[in-house]
Design goal:
Strands 3-5-4 form a 3-stranded antiparallel β-sheet. The protein has 118 residues and is of the alpha+beta class.
Length: 118
């Protein structure tokens, strides 16, 4: 189906919902046939929480950590940092706010370029 809409290059995961309606033998067969598939029941809070963690890990795998220094005179750019990266920690130095961030490489590069142009 992804090929039909031109999205075969988009990262994807196979997910089987309503797994609570499937026998254990059929679940084992699904796992053997599709070992990377996600089996869950949306009725199970535990399964939904595990799916959330799987999705987060999937996207964070491509992220990088970096350190940015936001000059005190340019604190108006703070929202840009928060919109484009996850701020892991903040400290304050003599030249500005020092932030350890995690984000996609392109977003971190754009933030670095913006800060370098100041």
């Amino acid at each position: 189906m992804l090929r039909e809409i031109g999205a075969e290059a988009v990262p994807s995961r196979l997910l089987y919902n309503k797994i609570d309606r499937v026998t254990e033998a059929d679940r084992a067969a699904l796992r053997a046939r599709q070992p990377d598939a996600i089996l869950l029941s949306a009725m199970s809070p535990k399964d939904v929480a595990a799916l959330r963690e799987t999705i987060i890990a999937f996207f964070e795998a491509a992220m990088v950590e970096d350190q940015l220094v936001l000059p005190y005179a340019k604190q108006g750019l703070l929202s840009d940092v928060y919109e484009n990266a996850r701020v892991l920690s903040e400290d304050y130095g003599t030249t500005g706010r020092i932030m350890k961030v995690r984000g996609l490489p392109g977003a971190i590069t754009r933030l670095r370029r913006t800060l370098a142009a100041l």
